[in-house]
Amino acid sequence: MSRPRPRPEDTGSGAYRMPLDVVVLIPALDEEASLAGVLPAIPNAGPGWRLRNAVVVDNGSRDRTAEAARNAGATVVTEPRRGYGAACLAGLAHLRERPPDVVVFLDADQSDDPRELPTLLDPIAAGEADLVIGSRALGEREPGSLTPVQAFGNRIAAALLRLLFGLQATDLGPFRAIRWPALEALGMRDRDYGWTVEMQARAARAGLHVTEIPVRYRRRLGRSKISGTVRGALGAGWKILVTIARVRLGG
């Protein structure tokens, strides 16, 4: 894999700043029970990077998600308007007060293993990628962790990303890391199910260096708000297709 050209916005000198300052951003809706297992498992440092903190965006929870996050040492941002993308956008607005070098997106439901964070960050720390996607399709999946509808939808979306944007994608996995300047340049705006595919489509259109790494995927703790219902799964699938079309048409 080729190394991307040095970017002056990283340090002012054209080289990557080391160690990279990393923030983990976790959208959360009614995830009180799972956060106690997710937050303590996030590594604090690795080769070429260090963790600043974890930011949990409470997306209108009815349980004690915010309290559980604070008790585990996370910063809590409140976004009462429901939507995965809305939560991510609120988290990014908070981070603009003091931007990190890299943002890692991690789900709150224990389906992804936070201990794989160093592997996710390795290509960025090595200067080999702007955006790294944790691919569930390439990694080991616990039986029942990815529903047939989700797997089928991922294959369709990945095929469209390859066809329309030339991006070699296998998954829309939510566990991902991206350099802050690259993320800001994308102009992300989706407020719900289209967030992940929008990022990949915009990254491909912008010519960013995107790579995938295999990650383990586990059965989530509790019922999924999206794939756990037929309505949610169909709504997510339709939004993903619409998002791909919108970005392809320049929207």
Q: How would the blueprint of this fold be written?
A:
Blueprint lengths: L7 H4 L8 E9 L3 H7 L6 E2 L2 E10 L6 H7 L3 E4 L5 H12 L6 E4 L11 H9 L5 E5 L12 H18 L10 E4 H7 L8 H11 L4 E5 L15 H19 L3
Parallel strand pairs: 1-3, 1-5, 3-4, 6-8
Antiparallel strand pairs: 2-3, 5-7, 6-7
Task: Please state roughly what percent of the residues sit in beta strands, choosing from under 5%, 5-15%, 15-25%, 25-35%, 35-45% or over 45%.
Answer: 15-25%
CATH T-level topology: Spore Coat Polysaccharide Biosynthesis Protein SpsA, Chain A
Radius of gyration: 17 Å
> Mean pLDDT, nearest integer?
90
**Could you give me the name of the CATH homologous superfamily?**
Spore Coat Polysaccharide Biosynthesis Protein SpsA, Chain A
User: Can you write the helix and strand succession as a string?
Assistant: HEHEEHEHEHEHEHHEH
**The CATH top-level class label:** Alpha Beta
Number of helices: 9
- Principal-axis shape equals globular
The unreliable regions are 1-15
The CATH architecture designation is Alpha-Beta Complex
SS elements, strand count = 8
Q: What fraction, in percent, of the residue positions are helical?
A: 25-40%
**Largest sheet composition:** 8 strands, mixed
How many domains, in number, for the residues? 1
Intertermini distance: 30 Å
Global structural class:
alpha/beta
